[in-house]
Amino acid sequence: MENLDHYWQLALDYTLTYAPKFLLAILFLIIGLRIISFLMKMVNKGMEKRKTDETLRPFVVSLLGWGLKVMLFISVIQMLGVATTSFIAVLGAAGLAIGLAFQGTLANFAGGALLLVFKPYKVGDLIESQGQLGVVKEIQIFTTILLNPQNKTIILPNGAVSNGDITNYTREGKLRVDLTVGIAYESDIRKAKEVLMATMQKDEKILKDPAPFVGVSELADSSINLAVRPWATPEHYWDVYFSTLEACKNALDAAEVTIPFPQVDVHLDK
Hints:
Elements: H1 2-49, H2 56-79, H3 85-101, H4 103-118, E1 126-129, E2 132-139, E3 143-147, E4 153-157, H5 158-163, E5 166-168, E6 175-176, E7 179-183, H6 189-202, E8 213-219, E9 224-229, E10 231-232, H7 237-254
Antiparallel strand pairs: 1-2, 1-5, 2-3, 3-4, 6-10, 7-9, 8-9
């Protein structure tokens, strides 16, 4: 009977000691979860107002939510009197191990987040990165997917893309098409330039501003090379490239301006 009274008294003492802490911890947990939920909604709305990329938004909100929940959990168990020093050390060691194991993946994730925030390119842009040229088909959190001129799908890791050079051919809305047309040394340069300029001015896909340009770029071994520089929108770049070359050839033939073959002069000593 005395043992029963002793255990009863012990249980009562523990209840009086830990019940308030337990109830307070539960209350703190409930309030904390509601605050975290409210903060996540506010962050999500803020990102919507700033028109943050839809791919990035759920990842940022989820990452923030998990981070705050871990901090809340540590605070709750600390309120219950549990020593959290060793727990935090184990958590840190586990985080380090996971970080080392997924180093490449985390680098791609961080790179994707940077690309989606700073937007050096968007879907539909013609870009060059990591030695690859293509139109951006999709920007994912880990990879960027390009479609190259041969209609091949190219998948680039975002970590490498964000840390490397990116050439965006679309952002300015216009591109210069660089062509070289050779004429014979005996040909009239002024006439050839007039013919080439007139040819480019007839093409509706060639922009009027900036104006096209023709000038002597090189006195080569067998020809006088003329730099032909029309401007086009990114979507018309290849059309202008090929059609201008063909039109220039036909126009020079019609104007009887010679496009020479490579020539070699051989001098024989007697």
